[in-house]
Amino acid sequence: MRVGMALGAARGLEYLHKAAAARILHRDIKSIDILLDDRFRARITVLGMANCLMNDGVTNCSSSPARMLGTFGYFAPEYAIVGKASLKSGVFSFGVVVLELITDRQPVHMKGGGGGADESVVMWSTSRLRDNRLVVAELPDLALKGVFPLEEMQIMAHLARSACSGTLRLGPP
């Protein structure tokens, strides 16, 4: 089911980025923006922060805010540093959603051990995503109790790693 949810969300993001009559940059894709129907098919919603794009992927709306908008934990690093959203920003946020599906962790959560510091699921998972053994041993949601198709978990991890590193491309070039 989780793989299907990720695929549905990826198709929705691909549609917004490539196929919509006015291409759309969502800017704030997060798990609560992905609705599921009665068959658990995913649909992306809440386009309140979306912008229309020109052919080169640059925001087309003149009313673009001067300050950065979005939800902490889903920001792409370049968006957080420079304050300019791009198609890659939406793909990064999608990668965070995939990590949520894999791990059942919030985008930003409290570190264990009583340290009290916040930790990004992206930072927590980075080293684990580089090692196929750790992908299946340490990333999966504990509620799965180790019962999941190994190949599907590795594919989901690859998807999350590619999205969060900026190398994922949705659809044909």
Structure in a nutshell:
Helices cover 42% and strands 9% of the residues.
SSE layout:
Blueprint: H1 2-19, E1 24-25, E2 34-36, E3 42-44, E4 51-52, H2 77-82, H3 87-103, E5 108-110, E6 118-120, H4 121-129, H5 132-137, H6 150-165
Antiparallel strand pairs: 1-4, 2-3, 5-6
Helix pairs in contact: 1-3, 3-6
Report on the structure:
The chain is mainly alpha-helical. The protein has one domain (2-60, 69-165): Transferase(Phosphotransferase) domain 1 (Transferase(Phosphotransferase), domain 1, Orthogonal Bundle), CATH 1.10.510.10. The protein is built from six helices and six strands. The protein has a two-stranded antiparallel sheet with strand order 1-4. Helix 1 runs antiparallel to helix 3 and helix 3 (87-103) runs antiparallel to helix 6 (150-165). The longest helix has 18 residues, at 2-19. The chain is globular. It starts with a helix and ends in an 8-residue tail after the last helix.
The CATH homology group name: Transferase(Phosphotransferase) domain 1
How are strands sequenced across the largest beta sheet? 1-4
Number of distinct beta strands: 6
Query: Could you say which structural class the secondary elements and strand pairing correspond to?
Result: mainly alpha
Largest sheet: 2 strands, antiparallel
What proportion strand? 5-15%
The residue fraction in helices comes out at 40-55%
What's the total helix number?
Answer: 6
CATH architecture: Orthogonal Bundle
Any idea of the CATH class?
Answer: Mainly Alpha
* Order of secondary-structure elements: HEEEEHHEEHHH
Mean pLDDT: 81
**What low-confidence regions span 5 or more consecutive residues with pLDDT below 50?**
58-66
| Terminal CA distance | 28 Å
Task: Say what the CATH topology is.
Answer: Transferase(Phosphotransferase), domain 1
- Determine Rg (CA atoms, Å): 16 Å
Number of domains: 1
Protein name: Protein kinase domain-containing protein
Keywords: ATP-binding, Nucleotide-binding
GO molecular function: ATP binding; protein kinase activity
Pfam families: Pkinase
